[in-house]
Amino acid sequence: MDQSHRIVFNLLEAMQCLPRPAFDDACRRLATELAADLTEENRLMRDINYVPAVVHQAAHNSLLAEIDRAQCLLAIGDETGSREIIRSLPEWVEAHINTMDLALAIAVTRTK
Known about the structure:
Elements: H1 2-15, H2 22-47, H3 53-75, H4 79-111
Helix pairs in contact: 1-2, 1-4, 2-3, 3-4
Keywords: Iron, Metal-binding
GO molecular function, one term: metal ion binding
Protein name: Hemerythrin-like domain-containing protein
C-alpha cells in the first residue's frame, strides 16, 4: 500500500502546477491509479474478512466520485473547480491513510 500511496501523493503534488492539457492527462492518470489501488485494497479487505470493509469501501467510493467530478468539471471547461477538488485531495488522502488504512494494515498483520 505504501508504494501506491507515494505514487498518488507525488501525482497530486505534481498536478498543482501543471498547465492544461497536461493537468487533464494527470487527472485521468490519477483516476486510473486510484481505481487500481482501491480495487486492491478492497480485495485485501475481502480476503481477510475485514469487518469495517463496508465503511472503508464507502470512503473509497467517495474519493473516486470526487475524481470523477473533477474530470467532469474539466470536460465542461471549469478548470478552476477541478483544480480546487485536486487541491483538497492530499489532505483527504492523508487522513484516510492515517485512520482507515492504518486500521486495515493492523488487521492484515494480525491475520498473518
